[in-house]
Amino acid sequence: MKKHLILFCFITAVIFFGCGKGKVSVTLAGSTAFQPFAEKIADEYMKANPNITITVQGGGSAVGIQSANSGAAQIGMADLVKLPDEAKELTSTIVAQDGIAVIVNPKNKIENLSTEQLRDVFNGKINNWKEIGGGDEPITVVSREAGSGTRSSFEKIVTGIKLVDKAVIQNSNGTIRETVANDENSIGYISHGILNEKVKGLKIDNVECTTESIIANNYKLVRPIFLLTKGTPAGEVKKFIDYILTDEIQLMIKKDGLLPAK
Amino acid sequence: MFSEKGVERLLSVIAFSAISALALIALFIFIEGIPFLLKYGIKDFLLSSDWRPESGKFGIYPMISASFWVMLGAMLVGAPFGIAGAIFLAEFTPKTVMHIIKPAIELLAAVPSVIYGFIGVVVLAPIIREVFGGPGLSLLAGAIILGIMILPTVISISIDSILAVPASFREGSLALGATIWQTVHMLTIKAAKSGIIASIILGMGRAIGETMAVIMVTGNAVMIPNSALDSVRTLTANIALEMSYATGMHREALFATGVVLFIVIIFLNAIASVVIRKKVITK
Question: What is the dihedral of CA B3, B4, B6, B10, to 10 degrees?
Fold first, then answer.
C-alpha cells in the first residue's frame, strides 16, 4: 500500500514538473467556423516549437469574446462582421476572411438572387419559388440559431432581416447543408469553406461565391475572422498570431476554403 | 478495518452525495433562472410568443405549446403500441418468449438518442415531406420518433404491472368460462390500470425531456404550430440550441426555460409515483 502511494506521488511529481518546466501554454477559444483551422495551425506550430502547448476550444464567437475578456483563453476567436461592445477593450487582429454562401438544393432552377429578394425570402415576404422565377413550390427557409456568428454576419450584411417565424433552425453549418441537400424547396446559408456538390451556391447580385470573387471584393457576403487578445499581443501569443499571418499558413488556410486576411 | 459502523457511514456519505447532486442541480437552475423570471415577468415569459433574444424579447409560449404537442403526439404513437405490446407479451406469449423479447425491447432504451435523430432526419423526414408536404422536419416527425423512444418505458412498466395482478384473479375468470381476451380486457387491464397509467406518465416525462433527437427532427422554428407538419421548437431544444452562444439576459432566459421544464417534469413524475403508490395501498 505504502509503496503504491510513493510511486503515485512520484508519477504525479514527474507529470507536474514535466509540464511546468519550460512549457508555455496558449489557449484559443470561440468561433466554430475557425476552430478546425486553428487546430490544424496549432498542430503545425507545436511541431516546430515543441516547448509550447496550444489548446483550441470551440464554443462560438460569443464564447470567444467572453473568454478573452475573462482571461479564460489568451486568444478569443470571433467571426462577426462587427464586433459587439463587449469586445471594445480587446485588441483584434484579422487573420482570415470567410464568405457566406447562400445555398439551395441542386434540383432548384434558381441561379441568382438580388439582395432585396434574399431579404424578402428570409423575411417571409416571398414564400413561393415562383415569385422569383422557380417552380410553384413553397420556400423552406433554413437559418442558424440566435447568437450564431454566421447568422449575425448574414443579417448584418443583408440588413433588414426579421427572420420569418416558420424558418427551420439548425445549429451548425454542417446540418444546414444536410437539410438543404435533402429538401428540394429549401434555402439556407453556410460558410464558404464547407460548400460542396451536395448543394448549389447561388449568385448574389450576379456575383458567384468563389474564392476569386471574394478576394476581388466583388462578393458581398464576407465576414472577417478576428483573433481577440486582452491588450496588445505579446510573447508567445504574439508569436503565434504572427505565425498565422505568415504566407505559408495563409496559403494553407486558402487551400482549405477560407480566405487570406489581406 | 471495515467495521459495521464504518461501512454504514461510508455508504450513507456516498448515498447522500448522489441525492445532493439532485438538490444542487435544482438549486443551480433556480438561482440562475428565478431572478430573470422576476425581472422579466412570469406572465410575459410564459405567455408571449415573441422570442427574439437579439432584441431582448423572451416569450417561450411557442416552445411550451411545441413541447406539449410533441409530447401528446408521442403519447398517441407510443401508448397504443406500448400497451398492446405489453398485453401481448404478458398474456398471450409463453414466458420463455417474453423473457427474450422484453430485454430486447428494453435495449431500445439503450440506443443513443442521436441515432434516433439521425434515422429521423435521413429516413422519416423525407418520407413526411414527400407524402404530406411541408419541410418534413416537423412536429409529426418528432412525435413519431419520440413515440418509438418511449416504447421501452411504457412496455416494461406495463408488463410488470400486468404480471403483478394476482394469478388467482385470472384463474377465477378463466374458471368461469371467460376467454383469455375477455379476461384481459375486463379484468387484468382494470386491475393493472394504475401501473399502465404510470407507465404512460413516465413516458411523457421522457418525451418532454428528450433533447438531441428532437433538435434533429423537429426543425426548431419558433412558432406556434398550426398543423402537425409545421416545424416546431421544444423547451429542451431551445436551451440546447442557444446555450453555447448566450450571454447576459439571454443566458438567464434559457435557465428560466430550464426552470419551467424542471417544474413540468417534477410534476409528471410526482403524478406517476402517486398513481403507483395508490396501487400498492389498494392491494
Answer: 130
- Three cell numbers written together for B99: 423473457
User: Which of B54, B135, B242 comes nearest A168 by C-beta?
Assistant: B135
The alpha carbon of residue B209 and the mean position of all alpha carbons in its chain are separated, in whole angstroms, by: 6
ipTM of the prediction: 0.76
> What are the tens digits of pLDDT across the range B117-167?
999 998 999 999 989 988 889 999 999 999 999 999 999 999 999 999 999
| Per-domain boundaries in chain A | 26-97+223-260, 99-215
**pTM of the shown model:** 0.80
Residue B164 in any domain: the answer is: yes
Task: Indicate the residue of B221, B241, B246 with minimum beta-carbon distance to A165.
Answer: B221
Measured in degrees and rounded to the nearest 5, phi and psi for residue A58 equal -90, -140
The C-alpha cell that represents B189 in the structure block: 387491464
Return the beta strands (E) in chain B as ranges: 51-52, 57-58
Nearest CA in chain B to A140: B135
In this prediction, residue B280 carries a pLDDT of 54
CATH topology of domain A26-97+223-260: D-Maltodextrin-Binding Protein; domain 2 (3.40.190)
Q: Return all residues near A230 (Cβ < 8 A) that are at least 6 apart.
A: A68, A69, A71, A74, A89, A90, A91
CATH match of A99-215 with 3.40.50.720? no
Scanning every residue of chain B, which has its alpha carbon at the shortest distance from the alpha carbon of A179? B121
CB burial class (10 A; 0-12, 13-18, 19+) of residue B98?
middle
Total of domains in chain B: 1
Contact B52 A146 (CB under 8 A): yes
Task: Number of A to B CB contacts under 8 A, please give it.
Answer: 71
- Residues spanned by the domain of B125: 45-282
| Residue B97's CATH number | 1.10.3720.10
Continuous segment of H or E residues that includes residue B67: helix B61-87
Q: Is B22 exposed, middle or buried (0-12, 13-18, 19+ CB in 10 A)?
A: exposed
Inform me whether the C-beta atom of residue A182 falls under 8 Å from chain B C-beta atoms: yes
